[in-house]
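User: Need the bound-state model for 1,3-dihydroxyacetonephosphate:
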Amino acid sequence: MKKSRFFIANWKMGMPLASAQEWCKRHVGGLTALQKGDNNLVLCPNFVALQSVIELCKPAAINIGAQNCSQHAQGAYTGEVDAQSLKDVGVRYCIVGHSERRALFGETDEAVVNKIVALEANGIKPIICIGEDSKQYHAGHTKAVLEGQLRLVFPVLATLPRALIAYEPIWAIGTGDTPDINYLDDIFLWLREQVMMKAPDTIVSLIYGGSVTPDNAEELINVQQIDGLLIGGASLDFQKFEKIVSLASR
Ligand code: 13P
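Assistant: Bound-state model below.
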C-alpha cells in the first residue's frame, strides 16, 4: 500500500516576511501540483509570516504550521504566542521540542508536554521533535535518549487522535551528514513499536529530519516506517523542495 507522506518545510529564521510572501506568490502553482494524491505538504514560516503564507497558499490547499507556541494558554508572558492565536489565524500543525529550541532556549520535556496539551485544546497537531547529539550517538545511547525525551510525552500522546513524531539526530541537522539507512530502519522500527505499545489508539506519523536533500530524499522515504520528511535548509529553495517531494512521492 502506498503510504500517505508528509513533506514539512521548517523555514526556521531563514525566510523573512517579504521573501516568504514572494516565495508563496511565485510557487503557489508548483505547490498545487505537489499537493496531490497522498501527499501532505506543510509549510512552517515564522510567526509574522503565518497570515500571509496562509492567504497566499490557499489555492494550493496545503497546510501551514508554526515553529513554536507558548506552553501557556494566556497571561503575562511577554513575547510568547498562544496556541489559540495560531488556531485563529489558520494554523493546523506546530513544531514542538525542536533541538534548536531545546538547546538555545531551554525548552524542557515538561514544556514540550504543556505545549502539546495547549495545541490539542485548539485542534492543532503537534510535530514532536526528538533526537540525540553526536556524543550520545557515538556512545550508542540513541534509544535511551529518545526514550527519555518521550517518557512524559507518551501519556499525553495516548489521549490524542493524531500526532507526528520527528526523529532529527542533532548531528545530522544542517551538517550534510545523514544516518546510515540500516540504522534508520532499526530506529524507526523501534519507534513504531514504542508508539504501538504506549499510544496504541493514536495515529502517529513518523518523520525523519536532518540534511534532507534531493539526493537522499528517495532513499530516506523508502525506509519502511518513515512517513515523511522534515526539511530545513533545502526547503528555502523551491527547486530543491520540489525535487525532494517529487522524488519521494514516486
Ligand atoms: P536541515 O534540513 O537544514 O538539516 O534542518 C533540519 C531541521 O532541523 C528541520 O527541522
